[in-house]
Amino acid sequence: MILTVTANPSLDRTLELGGPLRRGEVQRAGVVRAQPGGKGVNVSRTVATAGLATRALLPARPGDPLLAALDDLGLPYDAVSVDDEVRSNVTIAESDGTTTKVNAPGVPLTPEQLDELTTLIRTHAEGAAWVTLCGSLPPGVPHDWYRRIADALMTAGCRVAVDTSGEPLRAAAAGRLDLIKPNEDELAELTGTDPAVFRAALSRNDLGPVVDAASTLVEQIGGNVLATLGARGAALVTRAGTWIATPPPVTPRSTVGAGDSSLAGYLIAQSSGAPAPDCLRHAVAYGSAAAALAGTASPTPDQLNPAGVTVTEFCSPTPSPAKDMS
Questions:
Q1: Which of 3, 9, 290, 303 has the fewest CB atoms within 10 Å, i.e. the most exposed one?
Q2: DSSP codes joined into one string, 196-248
Q3: 82-99 burial, b if ≥16 CB within 10 A, otherwise e?
């Protein structure tokens, strides 16, 4: 069982344009899609397509359109009732794969609703292979809530993965975790690195700064770091080693949700006992397959190309011998 927690779920609406977005003008969308979303929900959807057991935990009142969409998918979930309809996020997808996303703030949670969600997590975490804490936090939730949940779960022997951003990410990374999945900007923020340093290095195909930053984070959390790098693939840094993966060529349609599919791919492979390089291979295979799909569609196993993913072990450059200055 891979249990996912989405504190701030959404109904993701995608508008596909036949050309570039023209600000200030009226344009017609060729295709309009509505899919249940939020990072944890996306992870559960992808895990379910692989045939593994999963359950999504989230706040949403009975009859909410999001829950109706999950029912249509047959995705197992448990929901804490809230006082309003789950937010809608809008993605505008241009024909060249450029995506613009506008996210609403979400439904506020009362202290009582948050306590109910916390109890729900602890109840379902028993026996789960992984618990993933995903996405932003809605109004009314303290920024260290993920940290407190992770502390309780890890004390109980659960494996915990976190995929969030901003203050919740900094708080979560302040303690022990089994896995954290930052993108390059989030990794820069966590380690106090200027994002321009990463961008310049990656433009030279130099992953040294990313690996160094992720290695610092590994020491901090005691677990693994899966750093997703967009079209460049991903890096997996563990105490046992570091691996780099580059994806096969794909024509991107929407990058929204690709990182969620990467996390799902890693967990799917890890749950089957795959070694670290193969976990990374599946993470990148799932992420690149998701980017080639419209909206936030979850890739199915037959859409993957793991053989097209190149995985190499990363070795730090050997320092040049010191020159004899005598």
A1: 303
A2: HHHHHHHHTT--HHHHHHHHHHHHHHSSEEEEE-GGG-EEEE-SS-EEEEEPP
A3: beeebbbbebbbbeeeeb
Average pLDDT over residues 213-220: 96
CA-CA distance, 89 to 13, in Å (whole number)? 6
Per-residue buried b or exposed e for 236-255, using 16+ beta carbons within 10 Å of the residue's own CB: bbbeeebbbbbbbebebbbb
CA distance 301 to 65: 27
Spatial distance between the Cα atoms of 272 and 290, rounded to a whole number of angstroms: 21
CA angle 261, 267, 271 (to 5 degrees): 145
Contact 34, 69 (CB under 8 A): yes
Full-model pTM: 0.91
Polymer length of the chain: 326
Condensed to tens digits (0 to 9), the pLDDT of residues 192-201 reads 999 999 999 9
pLDDT digit string, tens, across residues 66-112: 999 999 999 999 999 999 999 999 988 888 878 888 988 999 999 99
Residue 258 parent element (H or E): helix 258-271
The CA-based angle 263-192-41, given to 5 degrees, is: 20
DSSP state of 160: E
Q: Is the dihedral of CA 317, 176, 43, 9 positive or negative?
A: negative
Angle between helices 65-73 and 39-49 (to 10 degrees): 10
CA dist., res. 203 & res. 70, Å (int): 40
Confidence of residue 276 (pLDDT cuts 50, 70, 90): very high
Torsions phi, psi of 81, nearest 5?
-70, 135
